[in-house]
Design brief:
The protein is mainly alpha-helical and 169 residues long. The chain contains 8 helices and 2 strands.
Amino acid sequence: AGEDEVESWQECVEKYSGELLKLICEAAKVKAGVVSRDQYEKDERRKLNLGHTFAHAIETLVQRRPDGNDVTHGEAVAMGILLAAELSERYAKQDEAWMEICDYDLHKRLTDDFLSIGLPVNCPYRIEDMAEVMKKDKKAEAGKVHFVLPTSVGDVRIMDFTVDEILSL
């Protein structure tokens, strides 16, 4: 980020620090509620992993690069959310029931929103490049990975796919 960008972010944080603190506290309360209701991550808590399956693969591949780690966890999650939205739209093209609940412009809307706040939107890797890492995801069960797929703003569904299945979508 350039110096001007850093200054504007700092000014923004200073100007809105009270509001930001309230939002952060409310978000933490929501997360704590979800975690307390689903301590063993069997249902609702999995939704908190939106973007993380892809993000963990991105982070692993970035760490393997000789130029070092230049993607933050938040940036990787942002890219992961966009990949999940893209996957959701691809799945809708093959599944009639999913088609009825999937917002087809969600990927574009999220991309525009992420760009407007300076988040990266272009993943440095293809899904094919991430496949082997995702197969080893710590939350995979019986060869299936729990993908949290957004269907619209504020709604996600958990779908279990093998990595090979997502590559074929």
